[in-house]
Amino acid sequence: MKLQNEDLALIKEKGISEEGLDEQLEMLRRGFPFLRLDSAATPGNGISRLTPEMEIGAITCWEEFLDKGGTVMKMVPASGAASRMFKDLYSFVNGKSERPDTDFMKKFFERIEDFAFFPRLNFITLSNHGLSVDSLVREKRYKDIASSLIDKSGLNYGHLPKALIQFHKVTGTSRTALEEHLAEGAAYAAEKGGNVRVHFTVSEDHLPLVRMKVEEAAGHLGHKYGVRFDISYSEQKPCTDTIAVSSDGTPYRENGELFFRPGGHGALIENLNDLDADVIFIKNIDNVVPDTHRGATIQYKKVLGGTLVAVKQKMDSYARMIAERKADAAAFEEMIAFLHNVLCITHDKTDEMNAEEKAAYIFSKLNRPLRVCGMVRNEGEPGGGPFLVYNHDGTVSPQILESSQIDSKDKNASKILKESTHFNPVDLAVAIHDYDGKKFDLRKYVDKSTGFISEKSREGHDIKALELPGLWNGAMSDWNTLFIEVPAQTFNPVKTVNDLLRPAHQPMPQLAD
């Protein structure tokens, strides 16, 4: 593609090279291959189901790690706007019906007082319309209520990030999703000195408001939980934006300028690469519950962290033995068994390797980033999640896949997909240092062939957009991976506003005296 001077200036400003742009266009032209599956990861075959004794051991390991001065950080991807949470309200406000005409909207208005944001919404309707929410309901002015919640003239919830939406009622007040993540971090990620490091990835537009909320909340929450919060922020880097093409494959332009889009959450591997701690927890902004429902979350975060620490120590000791040439044939066999039994990495050619080849192979597998991922049993239709997958070097290892990476026309792949039992709730504990304590360059462990192509509509034009390999999918493809079964109580995402009415997001029922 011949670039104009304006194109060159634009990609230079974004930090994208001409070669990188050509690579993106080639990916959009060529598409991405489906991955070859070995099997679904299930309990006993890629997913570990820990006994109560094993869980206690992992928690003890985690607490000892903290007591010895281990460093911890909690990373929360929080860039997303809350607009999708309120799509049903937008449809209602813009629709013809003046009254709730769907089960969703009927439930919203029937239980409107159960939302944590109700007091503020009531104040806004009084200010804007001179009537309370209850009075507007009696007058059948439902659209005025919905508009007061989502519009800029009201609470503006349709344009705020999820981080700033009031999720939960707390005695005398309420908490946003952001505040709940701080409170959660205090429960399991406080370092020995009482420091709790939390990193939010936010959009440039929302950063000032997020900073203001943190400034307001960190002090009193720190006092409540006896910790100090150390909060940092980052934005998705312009160099991770991806070009869009028209339906004929030519670069799409608006007003003569090349059109780029954010590359999806896989772009955040750059942000993660800039962080530094012995252990980093990763969890989405909308998967959080109030203090009264947080017991299972705290327990299993410690289980994931303790498992990570224990496995990482073993990986490092083996890698160090090889680096220092202290491993003999018996040690190699022990390490291969560890790769197979613990990391679920298999290779049918190890018996044919000589000692030098075996050492190089084992070291290359051990000395890489590690992630321990909580997996929840899928009670609905099977879909993307944990699988055992063939890699480019012929090994089989655990991977987290989206259903779009699996060839639905392949009978064997479809059979394996139907056999899957768990899904990925984005509940990760990761280690990003090598056996010698040096940080890995995480960008070297991305499988670029695992991106996606999505079809969008832009200003009435059909376009194809390139999605980078997902953060917990292809962006971590070459990491070592452990899947641990965690209970469904640890997964409580808020995808729609009515999800906040689920028991996990509501106050505990008061017991009678």
How can the largest sheet be summarized?
A: 10 strands, mixed
Mean pLDDT: 94
Into which percent range does the helicity of residues fall?
Answer: 25-40%
Beta content: 15-25%
Kindly name the structural category. Answer: alpha/beta
Radius of gyration: 25 Å
How far is the N terminus from the C terminus? 76 Å
What is the number of helices? 15
Low-confidence stretches: none
Q: Based on CA inertia axes, which overall geometry fits?
A: globular
Description:
With 513 residues, the protein is α/β, with parallel strands linked by helices. 35% of the residues lie in helices and 20% in strands. The strands form 5 sheets. Strands 2, 3, 4, 7, 8, 13, 14, 17, 18 and 21 form a 10-stranded mixed sheet that branches. The longest helix has 29 residues, at 295-323. It is globular and about 80 Å long. The termini are far apart. The model has no long low-confidence stretch (mean pLDDT 94).
Short description:
The protein is 35% helix and 20% strand. It has 513 residues and is of the alpha/beta class.
What distinguishing features does this structure have?
513 residues; alpha/beta; ten-stranded mixed beta sheet; four-stranded antiparallel beta sheet; 35% helix; globular
List the helices and strands and how they pair.
Elements: H1 5-14, H2 18-30, E1 37-40, E2 42-43, E3 46-48, H3 52-67, E4 72-77, H4 87-94, H5 103-110, H6 118-129, H7 133-138, H8 142-150, E5 166-170, E6 173-176, H9 177-188, E7 195-201, H10 207-225, E8 228-234, E9 242-246, E10 253-254, E11 257-258, E12 260-261, H11 269-273, E13 279-283, H12 295-323, H13 329-341, H14 355-366, E14 370-377, E15 385-390, E16 396-401, H15 411-419, E17 422-423, E18 427-431, E19 452-458, E20 461-467, E21 480-485
Parallel strand pairs: 2-3, 3-21, 4-7, 4-13, 7-8, 14-21
Antiparallel strand pairs: 1-15, 5-6, 9-12, 9-20, 10-11, 13-18, 14-17, 14-18, 15-16, 19-20
Helix pairs in contact: 3-12, 4-8, 6-8, 9-10, 12-14, 13-14
